[in-house]
Amino acid sequence: MSKNKSSRNKTIELSENDVVQLETKLLTPDSKLDKENLINKTILGDALEIIDYLPNHFVDLLFVDPPYNMNKVFGAKSFKEMDSGEYEVWVRSWLSKLVDKLKPTASVYICGDWRSSSALFRVLDDYFQIRNRITWEREKGRGAKTNWKNSSEDIWFATVSEDYYFDVEAVKLKKKVIAPYRDDSGKPKDWSEEERGNFRLTHPSNLWTDLSVPFWSMPENTNHPTQKPEKLVAKIILASSRKGDVILDPFLGSGTTSVVAKKLGRLYVGIEMDKYFACVAERRLEMAETDHRIQGYADGVFWERNVNPENNAADDINYQRLLL
Questions:
Q1: 3-state SS assignment for residue 91
Q2: Closest Cα partner for 212 from 294, 311, 312?
Q3: 281 and 271 Cβ atoms separated by less than 8 Å
Q4: Has residue 213 got a pLDDT over 50?
């Protein structure tokens, strides 16, 4: 634990001894891999090189959260902003290699922001069938004085073919009913009365406003600068994979994709070039052995932001206050 770190601060941090112990779990290939020896592994190395070691046609779901086109430091590594054409070439350098690793029925999700999203679209469109663009609200961050606050990010959804899996029932959102209409007999119409209030299950849209970016009092939080919420990845995994399917993340970061895949009964393969964050991923995978909870997801449904699904009181409790 860091010096003067609050007891309420749940951020996962590793000591030098932790890294020494955890790095023994990392896979560092120097030859071709087969499915049996890479499943449920964190591979240490550069994705552009490691992809060549992977077998063909073994991935059911590809989730990619690459560096966006901006200057960013990722632990011991960094990414430099390029002009849009150079960034597009860079995206193509690894995405083109990933095509043959996917099954014909696979789905693909790639994250971006307003700077990188157009380049991602153009490259995706060359290799896959683009289905949708998800936009999610990132409520965290400072306001802007000379521009609109940048509080949204994109996720492009694509498939290899017309034959793909999508389970809409697995990703419904449970929302409080504002207008509780009843039928002629007085029964709730498309909603239910529960101890804690009136709720309706709604079909998921491509606009996500129910996510909380990990922060210091959340048990999933790490020091990775661009960590995605477990809830975000859970939506994607539940919608576009079955239990036992293989999920690949070539820019694993602090391990969120692998951790959520494990919690939801999927198989996973993650590639990460920074040893410290690869070890953080392994620590989180250890934690997931005994803690399968995903913030904001319970009873088979997703809940609105700041609602604690484990609370049985009539009134909602602000989830962030609960974690404090």
A1: helix
A2: 294
A3: no
A4: yes
Report d(CA 165, CA 159) in Å as an integer: 9
Q: Where does residue 290 rank: exposed (0-12), middle (13-18), buried (19+ CB within 10 A)? A: exposed
- In angstroms, the CA 183 to CA 206 distance is 30
% of the chain with per-residue pLDDT over 70: 93
255 beta partners: none
Q: State the Cα–Cα distance between residues 117 and 60, nearest whole angstrom.
A: 23
The CATH architecture of the domain made up of 16-165+205-292 is 3-Layer(aba) Sandwich (3.40)
Q: Which residues pair with 134 in a beta bridge?
A: 155
pLDDT at 140 over 80: no
Alpha-carbon span 80 to 212, nearest angstrom: 27
Pairing of the two strands 129-137 and 207-208 = parallel
Q: Which of 60-74, 145-159, 304-318 has the lowest mean pLDDT?
A: 304-318
Strand order in the sheet with 192-194: 192-194, 197-202, 173-176, 301-303, 297-298
DSSP state of 72: E
Query: How many residues in the chain?
Result: 324
Query: Would you place residue 2 in the very low, low, confident or very high pLDDT band (cuts 50, 70, 90)?
Result: low
Q: Of 115-119, 203-207, 252-256, 316-320, where does mean pLDDT reach its minimum?
A: 316-320
Share of the chain above pLDDT 90, in %: 68
- List Cα–Cα distances, 154 to 101, 148, 181, 200, 308, in angstroms: 24, 17, 34, 26, 26
Measured between alpha carbons, how far is 271 from 253 in angstroms, rounded to an integer? 8
The domain locations on the chain are 16-165+205-292, 168-203+294-324
DSSP string, 241-298: --TT-EEEESS-TTSHHHHHHHHTT-EEEEEES-HHHHHHHHHHHHHTTT---BTTEE
